[in-house]
Amino acid sequence: MSFLRLGVNIDHVATIRNARGGLHPDPVRAAHLAAAAGADGITAHLREDRRHIADRDIERLANEINLPLNFEMAATEEMLAIALRHRPHAACIVPERREERTTEGGLDVAGAKERLRPLVARLTEAGIRVSMFIEADLRQLDACHDIGAPVVELHTGAYCEHGGEDRDRELARIIAAASHAQAIGLECHAGHGLSFDTVKPIAAIASVAELNIGHFLVGEAIFVGFEASIRHMRQLMDEARRGGGG
Ligand SMILES: CC(=O)[C@@H](O)[C@H](O)COP(=O)(O)O
Ligand SMILES: NCC(=O)COP(=O)(O)O
């Protein structure tokens, strides 16, 4: 069974820091703790409104941590310039609306291929591995393949938010999308809203290579500590991979 990487998203360490406008808690310190806890990568989303992660955080993460940095960014010239400046391991292109509380869905790649194609090319030329944050939709997957993106990240928000038959339906969509991604040669990641209660069915999907998880881990850290929160998530992911789905 293939290894499943855990990318820890530290956005909401910065949310707490920004609540008072100071320097504590430091997202880069959180990234070091995540590495010590066994994270395989760090994810950080530099939003246009800088509501949590700041430009200085990205600069320090790029220069100070030894784990691969997955830079989440909107498809804008501003963010492209920042990505080219810091050359993260990966860039995940995500939709953004200033008025949204959090990411509400996947990027409509199929509806913007000619706008996104040059962005993917410029990031790729800089040695940055490009991921597209999309819904579990075969048309979106084919569009990502068409524009040359090597990686997709399937949005798991609807799966996490629903229960019962609706969650089962979302899970089936994600499983089918992950299978299609593998069939057309795309590396498949998944993320958004995952928790201890929801992670195992997603982690059990053999064609998913990476999960990006943040908000829940930061919240759980308030009660058990950041390293323990991450280690628990890692244990659940490993159990799922060994066949302990559920
Ligand atoms: C793309 C995604 O699902 C998250 O990584 C993203 O960072 C969510 O935005 P907030 O972190 O601002 O909630
Ligand atoms: N792309 C998903 C991610 O990085 C983390 O999302 P969340 O766990 O903070 O909802």
Automatic annotation (TrEMBL):
Pathway linked to the protein: Cofactor biosynthesis; pyridoxine 5'-phosphate biosynthesis; pyridoxine 5'-phosphate from D-erythrose 4-phosphate: step 5/5
Entry keyword annotation includes Cytoplasm: yes
Pfam families cross-referenced by the UniProt entry: PdxJ
Ligand binding (1-deoxy-D-xylulose 5-phosphate): D11, H12, R47, H52, T102
Lineage top rank: taxon: Bacteria
Keyword Lipoprotein tagged: no
EC number(s) given by UniProt: 2.6.99.2
Record's subcellular location: Cytoplasm
Residue(s) at site: Transition state stabilizer: E153
Positions with a binding annotation for 3-amino-2-oxopropyl phosphate: N9, R20, G193, G214, H215
GO molecular function, one term: pyridoxine 5'-phosphate synthase activity
Assigned keywords, A-Z: Cytoplasm, Pyridoxine biosynthesis, Transferase
Catalytic residues identified in the record: H45, E72, H192
Reactions performed catalytically: 3-amino-2-oxopropyl phosphate + 1-deoxy-D-xylulose 5-phosphate = pyridoxine 5'-phosphate + phosphate + 2 H2O + H(+)
Sequence similarity: Belongs to the PNP synthase family.
Subunit structure: Homooctamer; tetramer of dimers.
Biological role: Catalyzes the complicated ring closure reaction between the two acyclic compounds 1-deoxy-D-xylulose-5-phosphate (DXP) and 3-amino-2-oxopropyl phosphate (1-amino-acetone-3-phosphate or AAP) to form pyridoxine 5'-phosphate (PNP) and inorganic phosphate.
Listed name of the protein: Pyridoxine 5'-phosphate synthase
Source organism of the structure: Magnetospirillum sulfuroxidans
This protein's encoding gene: pdxJ
